[in-house]
Amino acid sequence: MTDNPEGRRGSDDRRQAPTDGPVAPNTPIRRPSDDLRVRAAIRNELATDRPIEPGELPALVNERTAENVIALDHVSLAFDEPILSDVSFTALAGETIVVAGESGTGKSTILKLLLRLLVPDKGTVFIDDEEITELNFPDALKVRQKMGMVFQGAALFDSMTVFENIAYPLREHTTLDEDEIEARVREKLSFVDLDPDRVMEQLPSDLSGGMRKRVGVARGMANNPKIMLYDEPTSGLDPLTTATITHLIIKLQRELAVTSVVVTHDIRSAFRMASKIAVLAEKRIVFFGTPEEMSASDDKYLRDFLGGF
Ligand SMILES: Nc1ncnc2c1ncn2[C@@H]1O[C@H](COP(=O)(O)OP(=O)(O)O)[C@@H](O)[C@H]1O
Ligand SMILES: [Mg+2]
Questions:
Q1: Residue nearest ligand 1's atom 20 by CA
Q2: Residue 276 Ramachandran class (φ > 0 left, ψ -120 to 50 alpha, else beta)
Q3: Ligand 1 mean position to 23 CA, how many Å?
Q4: What is the dihedral of CA 253, 259, 263, 269, to 10 degrees?
């Protein structure tokens, strides 16, 4: 894969795991919790709805050893007019990349490029170091199986029960038998903090908006994907439900080491859950880095962008 300066920009020694080398006798030992407190404090400046506890932060990824799971490399795409122009970013294994930007800037388009529902005019998309841009349809489908998608809105099948909604991708794409499917559906519902016995036979219309969203996440993760993609997962939700969904995304990262791309215009939840934030504006990525780096930046566009919240 070509070297990607955009994606690597902003590496920061504070985020590296401590080295294993010998430690001089009088060198103070850096406790990881020191950094966690600093990180939590910085993120709290913007994510003000409820204080972030250090234990709720996304887990750190070692930039020196983690593999590249997702990369957009100098991607350009136009419909009637140019939408994306020379866009590059990478997601290392276990990272949550939040793509933030105003409406119409091409955020959903980026997810479609990752799913190979769209092909760029220029540039390349890599999933697991495999160039997906040139794949034929069956191979593209295979790559898509590595990804779970949580669509904007809940996008559940209204006439199917919660059980059938989550079982659907399992029936389509796996050879699991009925008992295994039921076990998997129960496991995923429990993961998203829904009681399987209470909700499995309900219809989406019986559920609150936040519960539907959680079912959407359970369905997205049904196949145990390595990658999760979320399109505006918190839009239209009240602050409490927004916090619940944000924490669920962090839980997938912390407990299952899933690599995620989350598209949102909600900068507050971005500050909570992101390993790195990519800010999309004027067809380009105008910032790519950690929330801590973002809050320290004196770039005028970013200050205005953050000042609006
Ligand atoms: N299939 C398409 N054909 C033509 N224009 C499109 C298509 N999909 C998206 N667009 C346009 O591309 C721009 C970016 O869309 P989108 O990625 O959905 O933005 P966002 O998700 O950031 O709101 C918008 O101006 C939209 O109208
Ligand atoms: Mg969109």
A1: 104
A2: beta
A3: 53
A4: 20
Please identify, in words, the CATH class of the domain defined by 1-8+34-139+274-309: alpha beta
What are the φ/ψ torsions at residue 186 (nearest 5 degrees)?
Answer: -60, -45
**Token pair in block for residue 274:** 């992101």
Q: What tens digit of pLDDT does each residue of 102-133 get?
A: 899 999 999 999 999 999 999 999 999 999 99
Residue found by looking up tokens 């690597």 in the block: 8
Q: Which pTM was predicted?
A: 0.86
How far apart are the C-alpha atoms of 135 and 276, rounded to whole Å?
A: 28
Least confident of 68-77, 125-134, 151-160, 223-232: 151-160
96 CB under 6 A from ligand 1? no
Distance CA 66, CA 58 (A): 15
- How many percent of the chain have pLDDT more than 90? 62
| Stretch (H or E) spanning 268 | helix 267-273
In 3D space, the residue among 262, 282, 288, 284 whose CA is nearest the CA of residue 273 turns out to be 262
Q: 178-189: per-residue pLDDT in tens?
A: 999 999 999 999
Cα of 279 from ligand 2 centre, angstroms:
14
Query: What single string gives the DSSP state of each residue in 86-153?
Result: EEEEEEETT-EEEEE--TTSSHHHHHHHHTTSS--SEEEEEETTEE-TT--HHHHHHHHTTEEEE-SS
Would the pLDDT of 154 be above 90?
A: no
Is the Cβ atom of 104 under 6 angstroms away from ligand 1? Answer: yes
Binding site membership of 116 for ligand 1 (Cβ less than 6 Å): no
Q: Where are the domains of the chain?
A: 1-8+34-139+274-309
Contacts of 11 (CB under 8 A, 6+ apart): 63
Q: Quick check: CB of 79 below 6 Å from ligand 1?
A: yes
The pLDDT tens digits of the residues spanning 225-277 come to: 999 999 999 988 888 889 899 999 999 999 999 999 999 988 888 988 999 99
Token representation of residue 299: 């770039």
